Structures are given as structure tokens and as C-alpha cells.
Amino acid sequence: NLSCYNGYNFLNYMDRSFSLIVLPSVLGEVRRHIDTKINSHTKEIDDDSYSFIEKLAQKSFDFIRRTSFTPRPITETITDDDIRYDIWNLSLRACENCEKKHEEGYSEVDKDILAYAAYLSRSYVREPNRQQIHQVFVISPDEHILSGVDFFKADEGLAEKYRGIESISTRNGRRSNAR
User: How far is CA 17 from CA 10, 20, 80, 139, in A?
Assistant: First the structure.
């Protein structure tokens, strides 16, 4: 039951289970929220979680630096521009049911998260033994990001291009079903 974990325990458990990647843009967003308080007394991101996220970001950087990705052999070649275009369209659709997000749209960090998930879903990791990436989990508290993952799976064209992308909500532990 993932919903019973505090932030640090949840991240620690997820990293042991899945090898988390923290993008530089996500780390920047976490840093902007480090002093934010909920109900004027509870930190949005506790100190243990923040330290762990910083370590994950460094581990992610080391992993990305040591590892190169090559597109998996799929009949249709997808370029970085294709991924960006798909994410831009997906981000508009994912915000349709949320008035606030429909007005302000996806942030660049939100788009980075989904673009990187799309990229990884089509990749092999070259080192150590050229292994195909079969599943990519997007872990977020934000419903508009999670609904973006749902659009990956609901749209037949996107579902075929970007296979194995799932989401896990840090608010309630809800997990999407992979196609």
C-alpha cells in the first residue's frame, strides 16, 4: 500500500523497486518548493525527502552520462521533434478537463517529464548488455501529468509509438494500467 508511506520512505521504496530518474528540471522545481509550507507549518518537501531527491538527481546524472540510448527498432522512425510535437498536443488535451490548467497549460517541467518518458519507452540501454526498456513509470502528485500518461495509452497512435508508459500517483498510490 504505497499511500501509507511518507515522502522519503515512498521515494526510497520506489528507487529500490524501479531505479528512479530525477531530471534536472524536476530537481529545479523541487528546489523552488523546498521552503513551501502546507497549512503554514508543514513543509511541502521534508528535509529527508529533499536530500534523497538530490542524491537521486546525482545518480540519474551519472546514469545518463555513462549510458547512451539508441531507438529501438520500430518500423516508424520517431525524431526528437516528433516527440516534442506529440507532447505539445498531448499536454493541450490533458488539460481540457481542468479549468485552471487549461488556462495556464503544462509547464516546461511537465513537458520534460512526459517527453523523457516517451523517449525512454522507445529505447534500449546500451550498457551493460543492450537491454530494451519495457516499462517507464511517471511518478507524480499532479493529476494533469497523470492524465497525460492516460492519453499516451488511450490514443491508439500514441499507444503504438510509446509503449509501456504507466503512472503512479504519489497522492493516492493509484497506478495506471499498461497497454
Answer: 11, 9, 29, 13
- Read off the pLDDT of each residue in 1-6 and give the average, rounded to a whole number: 57
Task: Examine residue 71 and say whether the peptide bond preceding it is cis (omega within 30 degrees of 0).
Answer: no
The phi and psi torsions of 111 (rounded to 5 degrees) equal: -65, -40
Pair type for strands 136-140 and 165-169: parallel
Alpha helices in 34-179 (DSSP H): 47-66, 80-94, 99-104, 108-121, 143-154, 156-161
- Torsion sign across C-alpha atoms 104, 107, 108, 114: negative
Query: Which helix (H) or strand (E) element contains residue 7?
Result: helix 7-18
Does residue 38 carry a pLDDT above 80? Answer: yes
CB of 44 closer than 8 Å to CB of 32: no
Mean pLDDT check: name the lowest of 1-5, 27-31, 53-57, 117-121: 1-5
CA angle 166, 162, 170 (to 5 degrees): 20
Nearest to 46 by CA among 36, 58, 56: 36
d(CA 105, CA 102) in angstroms, rounded, equals 5
